[in-house]
Amino acid sequence: MSPSETFSLHDALVKVIVEKSYSRIAVADRHGVFLNVAPNFAALYGGTAEDYVGCSAFDLEKSGILTPSVTAKVLREDREVQFMLTTRMGRTVLAQGFPVRDAAGSIVQVASFSYDMTDLHILREEYEYLQQRFYKQDGAARSRGAESEITQPIDPAMRSIFELVWRVARTPASVLFLGETGVGKTMFARLVHQQSDRRTGRLVELNCASLPGSLVEAELFGYESGAFTGARQKGKAGLIEEASGGTLFLDEISEASLDVQAKLLKALEDRRIMRVGATRERSVDFRLVAATNVDLEARVESGQFRPDLYYRLNVVPIIIPPLRQRQKDLPSLIDHLWAKIDKRYGGGKVLESSLIESLLRYHWPGNVRELENVLERLYVTETGPRIGSDRAIRGLLSGMAAPPLPEASAPAPEGRAEPLPKVLARVERQLLQDAQKRHSSTYEMAASLGISQPSVVRKLRKHGL
């Protein structure tokens, strides 16, 4: 095959990819002149593909047709770029531009991708308006001394969140729940599924932090027979396939590898996936709900999370506040959790009001999960139909009170200050020893000290305890 034939074949291949791809693609040369433009790209900015091919991105930018042009920006700044813009058609677009370089590092072409975010942008505006409306309503009710429509004493911020979840559940948008460990993100994800038009389908859940990256990919996308060592002989459908017609909930999505993120984005965009080791794609139809307890925007800035997937997930970010910031929720939560525990064990036990008052004074670093664990511990360890004795209260308070700091030791000899690391190590060891005396497990120690259980284990080993 001659060089000219190879070049023609390459051009034809690029043309097919651009025109047939679901993504809105445009390819320009080193001068910014468009060589190939997808019809859906042209429709997004106005006009037809023929209106753009042969035209300069710089000229189109000056004339206001591309405002601004991602292709022109790539060539001016000599780097990949990404930004949001509003087209003359009134569409909100996420534009990405990527330089194609030769062996010397010079730009020879620019490939740009445009994602229509209009519907997602409108939904976010509705979300912000909804939150403002509920806060105003709550303030007006308080100024009138009116009773809340909700009979239980629920924090106004949480009432707003519940209403938002019910509103968003009825849309096809992806949802991202943010908040500390134990605040109830999984419960809200299940609520989204139950309130959606997909509730008759399956809710499939995966914690991305619970498996190595390679296994997360196999679990999500499935695999064919012989795809890797240990693969099932008949292969296996992935969780995305199992969630087709329903909802996929990915907890701790921040822990997914960049490869998994890329494939997940493609599945969201194209509604097609390919199993590991497969040669053909499969159609899927799922709704994604995700959750994380880390700052995803910081992960994007550090290159650990794909910005395009972040924008796709961050349509309606719902922040679940920690329990210490929603004290009005505690009475209703205690009632709800106690009823659930009582049903599980069938003992017909009741909490005395004096014990409930003790629970209300605690700051709950482990959030709702810690509250449920404490209530269950009370239920199974205390005898009698009514729990609220002095012994139960003393045990509860001693188990949950913050440990006092050890008294400062005498100054080092000759007036020399003791090195700070040595002082901190001694204080840490003393706190661990005090916690060991009060608690019977590392989980209780973790809740008391305000750190995670694995951190407690590591620190006990470190100090030989």
Brief write-up:
The protein is of the alpha/beta class. The chain has 19 helices and 16 strands. It has 4 domains: 114 residues, 2-Layer Sandwich (Beta-Lactamase), CATH 3.30.450; 201 residues, P-loop containing nucleotide triphosphate hydrolases (Rossmann fold); 79 residues, Helicase, Ruva Protein, domain 3 (Orthogonal Bundle), CATH 1.10.8.60; 55 residues.
Q: Would you give an account of this structure?
A:
This protein is an alpha/beta fold and 465 residues long. It has helices at residues 3-20, 39-45, 57-62, 70-77, 118-144, 156-169, 185-195, 213-221, 239-242, 258-270, 296-301, 307-313, 330-345, 353-360, 367-381, 390-400, 420-438, 442-449, 453-462; strands at 24-29, 34-37, 81-86, 92-101, 107-116, 175-178, 203-207, 222-223, 236-237, 247-251, 272-273, 282-283, 287-292, 316-319, 350-351, 386-387. Helix 5 (118-144) packs antiparallel against helix 6 (156-169). It starts with a helix and ends with a helix. 28% of the residues are buried. Mean pLDDT is 78; it is low at 1-7, 133-153 and 401-413.
What's the tally of helices? 19
Q: Can you say what the CATH homologous superfamily of the largest domain is? A: P-loop containing nucleotide triphosphate hydrolases
Measure the end-to-end span.
Answer: 74 Å
Helix residue percentage: 40-55%
Name of the CATH class of the largest domain: Alpha Beta
Q: Which regions contain 5 or more consecutive residues with pLDDT less than 50? A: 1-7, 133-153, 401-413
Which structural class should the secondary elements be placed in?
Answer: alpha/beta
Largest sheet: spatial strand order:
2-1-5-4-3
- Rg, please? 29 Å
**CATH topology tier name of the largest domain:** Rossmann fold
How many domains, in number, for the residues?
4
Average pLDDT, to the nearest integer?
A: 78
Strand content: 15-25%
Q: What gross morphology would you assign?
A: elongated
Number of strands: 16
The CATH architecture of the largest domain is 3-Layer(aba) Sandwich
For the largest beta-sheet, the strand count, sense and barrel status come to: 5 strands, antiparallel
